[in-house]
Amino acid sequence: MTFVRSTLPLLLMAIPPLAGQPKPVIDNEQVRVLMISAKPHSKSASHVHSRNRVMIYLNAGGDTFLPDRGPAEDLKSQAGEVRWRPAGGLHTGEGIGKDPYRVVEVELKNQGRSVQTFALDPVKVVPQIFKVLFDNRQVRVLRVRIGAKEKLPFHEHGFNRVVVYLTDTRVLVTDESGKATEAAAKAGEIRWAGAGKHSEENLEDRPVEVIVVESK
Predict the structure, then answer these.
(1) What pLDDT is recorded for position 101?
(2) pLDDT per position as a tens digit, 80-101
(3) What integer best gives the mean pLDDT of the chain?
(4) Handedness of CA 128, 134, 138, 143 (dihedral sign)
(5) Which residues pair with residue 65 across a beta bridge?
(6) DSSP helix/strand/coil, 181
(7) Phi-psi category of 98—alpha, beta or left, where left has phi over 0 and alpha has psi -120 to 50?
(8) How far, in Å, CA of 33 to CA of 35, rounded?
(9) Cβ–Cβ < 8 Å for 31, 106
């Protein structure tokens, strides 16, 4: 599903001011991932987004989009909300609301490809757990919610993916060879995971929730 083994290096978030130049959390051939965090009403410098991107809001609030030309737009958001944002022109942003502005931006470098099908695609195997938020040529985005102590059957992740944890998470992951590994993450952590097959068990006494951004 959404977890890398606990033996892999942990990719922790940088938390820069919105007005600065954030250091990427992940930067490879397929994606660049930024963690943006700022105090309420902090304003960014003018900038351009040259790539399409997925926005994952970690808390309620949002920002005001101030284009170089045209009217301002308030983009209010809820915690855990996910949006698709196309590449755009010169603009600034200003956080709104009383809480800090925290959002994960997944910039897509890939050009996309024809849809592939996998016999053990988790959306087919356990559709009640893996919900498709949107799906286009570049990316498929899933919201994954595993119930307390719930066990998931064997399934396959056919694409490399970015995983954003919305809750503290602790799961038991069993790979194709039968080897079981406990993996844990804190709410707000971001990780890169490769394609693979496994089953999973939620070890928590409460549901766990993540957002998965699959790079096609």
Answers:
(1) 82
(2) 999 999 998 888 888 887 778 8
(3) 87
(4) negative
(5) 73, 93
(6) strand
(7) alpha
(8) 7
(9) yes
Helix, strand or coil, per DSSP, at residue 62? strand
Instruction: Inform me whether the pLDDT recorded for 9 exceeds 50.
Output: no
**Distance separating alpha carbons of residues 40 and 79, to the nearest angstrom:** 15
Rounded Cα distance, 93 and 163, in Å: 25
Distance CA 72, CA 45 (A): 15
**Is residue 128 within 8 Å of residue 64, measured between CB atoms?**
no
For 162-181, write each residue's pLDDT tens digit: 999 999 999 999 999 999 99
The residue with tokens 């994960």 is 104
Helix (H, G, I), strand (E, B) or coil at 101: strand
3-class secondary structure, 205: coil
* N residues, the chain: 216
Question: Do residues 78 and 131 touch, judged by C-beta distance below 8 A?
Answer: no
This prediction's pTM: 0.85
* Beta carbons of 16 and 36 less than 8 angstroms apart: yes
Longest dimension (CA), the chain: 57
Measured distance CA(123)–CA(15) in Å, rounded = 32
